[in-house]
Amino acid sequence: MAQSWWQNAVIYQIYPKSFMDANGDGIGDLQGIISKLDYLQQLGVDALWLSPIYVSPQIDNGYDISDYRQIDQRFGTNADMYALIAAAHQRHLKIVMDLVANHTSDQAVWFQESKKSRHNYFSDFYIWRDPKSDGSEPNNWAANFGGSAWTYVPERQQYYLHYYAKEQPDLNWENPLVRQAIYDMMRFWKAQGVDGWRMDVISSISKDQHFTDYPDKLNRPYVLSDQNNGPRLHEFIQEMNREVLAPFNMMSVGEAPGATAANVRKFVDPERKELDMVFSFEHMRADRKAGGVNGKWDYDHFDLLKLKDSLTKWQDNLRDHGWNALYFENHDRARIVSRWGNDQKYRYQSATAFATVLHGMQGTPFVYQGEEIGMTNATFALADYEDIEITTNYRQYVEQDQTMTATEFLAAAQKLSRDHARTPMQWDTSANAGFTIGRPWFQLNPNYRQINVATDRQQHASIFKYYQQLIQLRHQFPILTTGRYQLELPTDQQLFVYRRVTAEQSWLIVANLSAQIVPITRLAELVTTEFVFKLKNNTHRCALDENIQPYEAFILELI
Ligand code: TEU
Ligand code: CA
């Protein structure tokens, strides 16, 4: 199968606000990113995905956009963006931008006009519905950020829909004028040199136009509906493909809460001419309590069998029918060494073990800023959190629904909050970890004095160096791109072991994702022939003659 650039790539996600501040105002910016391009080139990545940098009131840290074509002055100017694109391309780094087309900011001109009248050009750019006969919301849908998904506007005597904050009104994709406006904007950024799109909640853009109440066994006033896979979703994505992605050869990776192992081919099978890849949400529920009513906060314990089962289903279902987008971290997820690994005694081992599992698979691995040096969760008290999701969800589950206690919520937030991914990047041991000479917009993790790029890269057991080697391995050996995936030891509760096989080679990827020592005999049936190590995080090991250490990982070529 002919390879597209993104199939041989490792993509690095930058959260600009927290990456590098060049002008001392405490907020990361585009010139800061430009100053770190050499670092990213040394890491070996092939493309950069930037979280939104467009004009925004920052209610949801830029995922509430009020001008799609203008860089927010917090991050710099459009000229800075064009300079970044040129500097990245000079280093053979592609640029992927964030398409947030399910909703805009309520400060967008489109919405400001739409709310004024039922009879102007923008009236139907959003989803307006009349109140119920008693004046209440059109239905019982909840927003992801708590409360009703509907907000009333007296000027129109109607409610508008917002799956997220009330400041993030959902666009009406039923309206062809909306779709063409989005496609136009995408062409604008292509003309500036942008190479691809990460598409925010793309599986939510189509809504069932009946807007019926969502059943709720607890009969709460508002309940999260199924916000994904609406009736015209694939029609819209195929139109976007025809209008922009194919003719302008733009890579696409959809953030698709509605994609499952069972339906993922509908999104990414090349024959359907929709998207190139989608991010799964299923594997990230390997620590979620079954049957909970508190959404993501129903934290249980990390269940390796759930993780192996989910990732394997996606590997198997997408073989020859699409491509995986591989990740454990992003700006919405806590740090994997704290969430599923061991960020104290085994931070190097668990960071590199999870990286080995991910980068050995079929697909395109995504590295989130700081993941390459094993950054950890911070310790937050409720008042320390910055993310709108925390304050609104606390109100929803602890105060309104009372389906969680404050203690339970805080414990779950400590494990899972998005804020853990948004503490500033830790560059060195200087003030504010070298992120800013000003007052950082968000607190740093105090452990930056021990965990930072400069210190890590001086270590023999350096997580950065391990990522460099992993990425080199992927670039050097096609088996990691084209080899058939085959899970081994499916019921093993500690080892994640799988093969990558081509006609000529067979590699074994082994990771002990537990803090226990595992007898080497567990591999007896798998490693019966000679082998050579391709990569290992246990620096002294040179044979398979001793037990597997906690969070030890290695890649073998069986010969
Ligand atoms: O996230 C959408 C999404 O998946 C969230 O509902 C997710 O379940 C939640 O953030 C997990 O805690 C995208 C962006 O990645 C996120 O940063 C935005 O807040 C959201 O859309 C609205 O744009
Ligand atoms: Ca700045």
UniProtKB/TrEMBL annotation:
Cited SUPFAM superfamilies: (Trans)glycosidases (SSF51445), Glycosyl hydrolase domain (SSF51011)
GO MF annotations, alphabetized: alpha-amylase activity
SMART domains reported for this sequence: Aamy
NCBIfam families in alphabetical order: PRK10933.1 (NF008183)
PANTHER family the record matches: ALPHA-AMYLASE FAMILY MEMBER, OLIGO-1,6-GLUCOSIDASE 1
Family: Belongs to the glycosyl hydrolase 13 family.
Name listed for the protein in its UniProt record: Oligo-1,6-glucosidase (Sucrase-isomaltase)
Organism: Loigolactobacillus coryniformis subsp. coryniformis KCTC 3167 = DSM 20001
